[in-house]
Amino acid sequence: MGGDEPQPPGLGPATQQGRTYNHGTLSGYTAGRCRCDYCRGAFSLYRAARRAKGKDNPRPRRVRETDGHIPNDWFRRNIWNPALAAAGLNFKPTMRDLRHAHASWLLNGGADLQVVKERLGHASIATTERYLHTLPDADETALEALARTRNRSTRSITDGG
Question: Can you list the alpha helix ranges (DSSP code H) found in the chain?
Answer without folding.
Answer: 26-30, 37-52, 72-75, 81-87, 95-108, 113-120, 125-129, 138-158
